[in-house]
Amino acid sequence: MGVSSRCAVAVHALTLLARDGGGQLLTSAEIAESLDSNPVVVRRVLGRLRDASLVLSSEGSGGGWRLAHSPQAVTLRDAYCAVEEGPVLSLHAHPPSTSCVVGRNVQGVLEEEFTAAEWAMRERLGRTTIADVLSRVLAGDRQSTPQGP
Amino acid sequence: MGVSSRCAVAVHALTLLARDGGGQLLTSAEIAESLDSNPVVVRRVLGRLRDASLVLSSEGSGGGWRLAHSPQAVTLRDAYCAVEEGPVLSLHAHPPSTSCVVGRNVQGVLEEEFTAAEWAMRERLGRTTIADVLSRVLAGDRQSTPQGP
DNA sequence: ACTAACTGTAACTATGGTTGTTCCAGTTGG
DNA sequence: CCAACTGGAACAACCATAGTTACAGTTAGT
């Protein structure tokens, strides 16, 4: 199946909020415009980031979303864990037969191995911060459209 | 979303075939019985393993499936790559807006990071062989139901 | 040659999660 | 009081998976 695109949306939104030194206050409509998506979809994802204390939301007129921490302090792992629940690698849809040695014990082994594999994936995601992403995003623009003095 | 359970089915089937030193010849019906599932589902997964040269199939009466290599030579990574195509971590459902710096460049950065994270996951899966799984499966049975002399 | 036992594959259903959308209640600032 | 937000429910469209049935093709044994 593959994991949902929520993580990509989350990193995208966090990167937007990280501009200007992290002091940006943006509405879900503004973020949705950059994503070419829907404000409700954005609020769904940002709601999870808020539950994980990665962003803060303020209601009412003039409200919106802003980072809860500095862009250097938030990693892709934080974003991933905030929006994606449950294991990536699935065990059997059905529990296997208990009248077979393999059926009785394979799920325990698989759970250990899959957990270790996912830990490795998250560990790698934890090495990159939103600040890293932002600087590379900006560098990409400088490469393709060099600016004069 | 999470990844399909095909990898769990594949490892289960490979472990069954690895018994008896790897010389087992099993039918899809026998494997399906251990999985408490359907022979067609099993053949779908084992078909991918065969395309990846992990198992061999023989048609006709007396036919079935057997390992193409020794259980020590096949890792969970091999099984995973054989049955699971495409990236685990998805980029945006839509391409983002090109009129925004982040929208223009974030997908490239995400692709690099996600690829690295998935590589880390597969690397970890590559450290465990089917022989490892089999021995742990058998050990699990010895623990819970100790046998006399 | 016939039959039984397999694989290989197409077609179909049911299910569940995600995405996108509309709608409305609640909150806030001017 | 109004305009601009968030919060959240409800719903449709879509897609992959898991499971099932059905059938064609292949092989071994008699």
From TrEMBL, chains A, B:
<dbReference type="Pfam" id="PF02082">
    <property type="entry name" value="Rrf2"/>
</dbReference>
<protein>
    <submittedName>
        <fullName>Rrf2 family transcriptional regulator</fullName>
    </submittedName>
</protein>
<dbReference type="InterPro" id="IPR036388">
    <property type="entry name" value="WH-like_DNA-bd_sf"/>
</dbReference>
<dbReference type="InterPro" id="IPR000944">
    <property type="entry name" value="Tscrpt_reg_Rrf2"/>
</dbReference>
<dbReference type="InterPro" id="IPR036390">
    <property type="entry name" value="WH_DNA-bd_sf"/>
</dbReference>
<dbReference type="GO" id="GO:0005829">
    <property type="term" value="C:cytosol"/>
</dbReference>
<dbReference type="GO" id="GO:0003700">
    <property type="term" value="F:DNA-binding transcription factor activity"/>
</dbReference>
